[in-house]
């Protein structure tokens, strides 16, 4: 093109042509935004989202909610979805989302490499990583009270722990449902025993926190002896220098997946599927280790933090029927409210 003759054209034509050139040079990500709902705290999710923006230019607009709030919000928006992707929430939340009809099937290109237990068989959600529930105890308070770190669900019923346990509220937190499921499976899938146990545990609970990680700092600061939380929350506290002891109940804990799903009717569907595809690339899976997320990646060839790998070997992980959970989640929470905390 003759630049002089092009610039000599009427301003409207030259301006329009210049805009087209600038758009072409800027690439496909110009002004593109992906909307994500996540249950992961910002310290875990934001580095991942920033890495995606750096790679693609697509801005990730995310809202962090506890799992119960996330599912409730997405359900309320079902006819006019605000989110394109739900990313980083426990499998029980995705099972509930599937039951509510707010997510749709999508299989990333690496679907065939992902073990069956880490994905919904119909493709509604897939695990980003594997997580687990832990007992996180304040080492100083254990020593002062002459207690050993709890290694059984029954240890938490000791009167010495009265008013010294913090754990999540099942009305808002997916971690709390993981706790209920862990007890349910550890007690042989006997609901009567599960809720009888929780009534006894309630006598020792100081407070039920809104989010799963809400008990970590109070326990780290000595406001409670034990916090029942997911491993990343406990490891984050240890990384900050708090003297915490991490243990597992020998009866087992529910095997937890942290998943991703495409929102049904997503406004930015193409951006959403590309983001999900990237989630299951080795580049992204390696970020879990690089950013100290303290979970096991889904892809078998991704890098794994040695301390996470070592700790996970100590855990007895109990398989969970997520289809059953999706159908019974609301009932289990209501039963916990009516029979355990009686509110």
Short description:
This protein is α/β, with parallel strands linked by helices and 343 residues long. The termini are far apart. The radius of gyration is 23 Å and the shape is globular.
Protein model, in words:
The protein has helices spanning 3-7, 11-26, 42-56, 67-76, 91-100, 139-144, 174-186, 191-202, 216-220, 231-239, 269-279, 282-290, 306-314, 322-341; strands at 33-38, 59-64, 85-90, 103-104, 126-131, 133-138, 165-168, 205-209, 226-230, 244-247, 253-254, 256-263, 296-297, 317-318. α4 packs parallel to α5 (91-100), α5 crosses α14 and α8 packs across α14. With 343 residues, it is of the alpha/beta class. It folds into two domains: 31-131 and 257-304, D-Maltodextrin-Binding Protein, domain 2 (3-Layer(aba) Sandwich); 133-254 and 325-341, D-Maltodextrin-Binding Protein, domain 2 (3-Layer(aba) Sandwich), CATH 3.40.190.10. Strands 1, 2, 3, 4, 5, 12 and 13 form a seven-stranded mixed beta sheet that branches. The chain has 14 helices and 14 strands.
């Amino acid at each position: 093109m003759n630049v002089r003759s092009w610039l000599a054209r009427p301003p409207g034509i030259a301006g329009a042509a210049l805009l087209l050139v600038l758009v072409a040079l800027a690439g496909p990500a110009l002004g593109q935004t992906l909307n994500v709902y996540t249950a992961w705290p910002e310290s875990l999710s934001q580095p991942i989202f920033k890495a995606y923006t750096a790679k693609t230019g697509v801005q990730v607009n995310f809202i962090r909610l506890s799992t119960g709030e996330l599912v409730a919000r997405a359900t309320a928006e079902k006819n006019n979805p605000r989110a394109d992707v739900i990313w980083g929430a426990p499998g029980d939340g995705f099972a509930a989302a599937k039951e509510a009809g707010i997510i749709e099937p999508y299989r990333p290109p690496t679907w065939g490499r992902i073990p069956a237990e880490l994905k919904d068989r119909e493709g509604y959600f897939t695990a980003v990583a594997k997580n687990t529930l832990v007992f996180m105890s304040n080492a100083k308070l254990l020593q002062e009270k002459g207690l050993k770190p709890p290694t059984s669900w029954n240890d938490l019923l000791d009167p010495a722990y009265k008013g010294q346990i913090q754990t999540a509220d099942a009305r808002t937190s997916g971690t709390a449902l993981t706790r209920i499921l862990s007890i349910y499976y550890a007690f042989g899938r006997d609901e009567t025993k599960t809720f009888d146990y929780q009534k006894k545990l309630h006598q020792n609970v100081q407070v039920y926190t809104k989010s799963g990680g809400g008990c970590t700092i109070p326990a780290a600061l000595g406001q409670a002896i034990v916090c029942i939380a997911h491993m990343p929350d406990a490891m984050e506290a240890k990384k900050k220098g708090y003297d915490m002891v991490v243990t597992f109940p020998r009866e087992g804990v529910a095997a937890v997946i942290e998943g991703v799903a495409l929102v049904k009717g997503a406004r930015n569907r193409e951006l959403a599927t590309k983001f999900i595809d990237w989630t299951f690339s080795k580049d992204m899976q390696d970020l879990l280790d690089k950013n100290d997320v303290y979970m096991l990646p889904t892809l078998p060839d991704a890098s794994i933090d040695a301390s996470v790998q070592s700790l996970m070997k100590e855990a007895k992980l109990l398989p969970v029927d997520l289809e059953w959970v999706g159908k019974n989640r609301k009932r289990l929470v209501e039963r916990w409210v009516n029979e355990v905390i009686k509110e």
